[in-house]
Specification:
Rossmann fold, binds NADP nicotinamide-adenine-dinucleotide phosphate, 39% helix
């Protein structure tokens, strides 16, 4: 039986093993999928040991996606341009193939929700692995993205990584907050920070909340995430957490490993909470 695992830290909250179990049942594919918590400084060794011991592929989550990129020696196009990897497949030739399914998974969920169109203007909060991983798919779809982040340098690094392309820019948080009246042209605001993991929200003004803007939190939980609670409190009407993205990105990983695309709609219905 083929073996897969999701590697991260923390990993307890991960729903990936349940989702992959449902995909396997739905498609009749036999696979074993577990979750592995990795010490922060021991990622390479743990992952390579898993493959040496017969692992066929892996998902990579917070905070190892950039490290995973460095470990791969061949890439899908979207991973090559993103510089971050969330899916690995060991090829017959023993090459380590890196993919990034976060961007395409998010885009698919935003389309399902009707939260996006090719000319959407997006405010992206956060500049970590997840933010970097979703930019390629959103820009390729036609969107325009502005990044704000607690540490401005990390946002600037992403802009530099993407060679200062036209539809991508960043604004310093202080400058953003001072000029809020100019910042309300966004159609969609995405929280790609990990602040929710500790029950926090990014330090931004509630003046960004408007009833006609879509708000999407990459994070998901059994109840409304801190960011979405805050959006709702300040008057947001159209909100979603990242459970749909999680299922869509998992489906693209499953497809890379097995060549079969699971039906995500029924699984999203099963997990999606209506708030
Ligand atoms: N739904 C899905 O399928 C899916 C997929 C991928 C990721 N995610 C979620 O996306 C989130 C980000 O993951 P990641 O891999 O990008 O993590 P990461 O690489 O560790 O990056 C963390 C980001 O969050 C910011 N941040 C952390 N705490 C903050 C706070 N208190 N206030 C403001 N900003 C804060 C960091 O800012 P600095 O640069 O200043 O440190 C950085 O931009 C996580 O919650 C993860 O669970 C969901």
């Amino acid at each position: 039986m083929k073996r897969f695992a999701v590697f991260g830290n923390p990993i307890k909250h991960s729903k990936s093993p349940i989702i992959h179990k449902l995909f396997a049942k739905q498609t009749g594919i036999l696979q074993k999928y577990t979750k592995i918590c990795v010490p922060i400084d021991n990622f390479h060794e743990k992952l390579l040991n898993f493959f040496k011991n017969g692992g066929n592929g892996a998902n990579i989550t917070i905070p190892f996606k950039k490290k995973a990129y460095k470990l791969c020696n061949t890439f899908t196009e979207r991973a090559k341009y993103s510089g971050v990897v969330n899916t690995i497949k060991i090829m017959k030739s023993q090459e380590i193939l890196g993919d990034n399914t976060d961007g395409i998974g998010l885009l698919q969920d935003l389309k399902n929700l009707k939260f996006i169109h090719p000319k959407s203007k997006i405010l992206l909060i956060g500049a970590g692995g997840a933010a970097q991983g979703i930019i390629y798919s959103l820009i390729k779809f036609g969107c325009n993205i502005t990044i704000i982040n607690r540490t401005y340098q990390n946002a600037k690094n992403i802009i530099k990584y993407f060679h200062n392309i036209k539809n991508l820019n960043c604004i310093e948080l202080q400058h953003f907050s001072k000029n809020l009246h100019n910042q309300l042209q966004y159609n969609l605001i995405i929280n790609a920070t990990s602040s929710s993991l500790k029950g926090n929200i990014p330090n931004i003004s509630p003046l960004i909340i408007k009833s006609n803007i879509f708000y999407y939190d990459l994070f998901y939980d059994i109840s409304l995430t801190p960011f979405l609670k805050w959006c709702r409190f300040h008057g947001a009407k159209k909100i979603s957490d990242g459970i749909g993205m999680l299922i869509e990105q998992a489906a693209y990983s499953f497809y890379l490993w097995h060549g079969i695309m699971p039906n995500t709609k029924i699984i999203i219905q099963k997990f999606k909470k209506i708030y």
